[in-house]
């Protein structure tokens, strides 16, 4: 059964948060690296799908300054997270620098989902019907499936 894109996004945020906690608590380098790669892969796929669905709909379908502002802000935060992930990818996982950069990424991620789940979700609920949000959820799932292939 189809669900609102907002529920799907919230569920995926919680999934990534869970992986982050596992990464932070892992003392086994191999396990930590595997968890990081899984989290990274899921998050990049999530962000791409999010940008191609809900952000695009807010930017193109809603002719409102606030909708544009929340979508643009969220995209900038995604770019910041991508930059941090790229930095993390180029640091040895055993190093203190890796842990420090990962903590910086984690703060950025938490700030992003907090702002997104408050501001962007409220904007989307105000601008789109429940049926549209469900359609966006289906679109999001299709886009992610296409990106995986």
Structural summary, described in words:
The chain has 149 residues and is mostly helical. The chain has one domain: Four Helix Bundle (Hemerythrin (Met), subunit A). The chain is built from five helices and no strands.
At CATH level 3, the topology is Four Helix Bundle (Hemerythrin (Met), subunit A)
Note the main sheet.
none
The residue ranges in which pLDDT falls below 50 over 5 or more consecutive positions are none
Which geometry do the CA atoms define? Answer: elongated
CATH level-1 class = Mainly Alpha
Mean pLDDT: 96
User: Count the strands?
Assistant: 0
Q: Tell me the number of helical segments per DSSP (H or I, 4 or more residues long).
A: 5
Number of domains: 1
Distance between the termini: 23 Å
User: What string, H for helix and E for strand, traces the elements in order?
Assistant: HHHHH
